[in-house]
Amino acid sequence: MKARKRINAVLALAGYSLYRSRRGRTYEHDGLITDHNHEFVRDPHFESAYRRGVQASHVDYQIEWRTHIALWAAFTASKLPGDFVECGVNWGFLSSAIMEYLDWNKLNRHFFLLDTFNGLSEDLLNEEERAAGAAENSRKMVQRGKYNADVETVRNNFSGWQNVKIIQGAVPGTLNQVTTERVAYLHIDMNCAAPEVAALEFFWPKLVPGAMVLLDDYGFPQHEPQKRAIDACAEKLGVMAASLPTGQGLIIKPAI
Length: 256
Ligand SMILES: C[S@@+](CC[C@H](N)C(=O)[O-])C[C@H]1O[C@@H](n2cnc3c(N)ncnc32)[C@H](O)[C@@H]1O
Description:
9 helices, Rossmann fold
């Protein structure tokens, strides 16, 4: 005990501290280490939604807390009038989890799912993203099946749910195929600044008051160009993104 105190005192002088995790109580996934309450992982409703996400992607990304935030945002959005949109779907992990969680067929909403289904649209990368190797990385992800390049698997995955519109092609070119004037939930997850900003600008006037905008990549260090671009866009719109400890960003459309 004394030794720990001494070590902590020395570390504190250097500006560091030792994190004391409590065995069995610590959440340690996806860049997040915390003892904060995460009993949601044992909630059967959460578990079945999460399992449905894993079924869609064939991989457990161990993103329980991110999924919890997405389910919360989607649940809250389900109390508002308006449809759901995801830009950047891949195998459909999060959207599948949401549809399972909300018992989608009882909800009578549309879910628009937009993706190239072939990785990033390289012509949309900015200099910084290009220099960081985003184009090569995306090609590798497609080759390895980490980015889905077979839209039919996605169609099959979502076939049990009603009112799902899968839109293949690059955002922003496909945005006008989203045929709704009221959006309650918008998930932006394209790992590329330009289409993300374009999606936020396009949907902003269509977002109903209180609508949820969840930005999957916002706080992740490898996606800083996206954060800067989204922050600039949010400032123009007169709002602010909350930087969540999960790495996600969250904007709520103000009621006025
Ligand atoms: C990280 S994945 C999305 C993960 C997904 N939200 C999930 O729940 O698993 C990023 C996706 O964005 C797509 N994408 C990248 N740029 C795009 C663009 N300009 N238009 C449409 N989709 C794009 C990629 O094809 C890839 O499937």
